[in-house]
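pls design
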């Protein structure tokens, strides 16, 4: 399968799922069983896509579906993995949104779903420091609250590298 998808091995490795030397995924037993069952179900011609969880941390899901794009039936798999704003380079965030380094760190935490209190703990800040920084962050990004930060970041090109 990896020979058909250019760059798949590198993408899987970047997601934390490096292939073994024989080209197979080294999955824990529950995920390996789920993948085998999903492959069998999709191979039988299931009318709906068959989902399978490949990894919980980081979360990586595979959607399998039997398709016939050129008249020949194929088993097609599409991967989806959780985005992590905290994994983005801070320089990319500071440049894209005109933020200070501290504001960029806070924005990444908020985008990853942390509350302001959780972000303060993660960053080693006091609650008041997080509140103060969040006010500056909201003003610079032109949003009125945490959901606005998330929307702006998710709709931006910072994810494209």
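designed seq:
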């Amino acid at each position: 399968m990896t020979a058909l998808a250019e760059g798949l091995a590198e993408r899987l490795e970047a997601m934390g799922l490096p292939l073994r030397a024989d080209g197979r995924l080294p999955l824990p037993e529950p995920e390996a069983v789920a993948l085998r069952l999903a492959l069998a179900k999709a191979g039988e011609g299931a009318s709906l896509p068959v989902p399978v969880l490949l990894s919980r941390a980081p979360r990586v899901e595979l959607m399998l579906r039997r398709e016939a794009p050129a008249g020949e039936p194929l088993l097609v798999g599409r991967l989806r993995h959780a985005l992590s704003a905290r994994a983005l380079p801070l320089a990319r965030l500071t440049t894209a949104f005109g933020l200070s380094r501290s504001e960029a760190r806070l924005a990444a935490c908020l985008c990853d779903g942390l509350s302001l209190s959780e972000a303060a703990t993660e960053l080693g800040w006091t609650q008041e420091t997080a509140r103060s920084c969040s006010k500056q962050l909201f003003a610079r990004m032109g949003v009125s609250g945490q959901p606005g930060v998330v929307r702006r970041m998710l709709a931006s090109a910072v994810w494209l590298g």
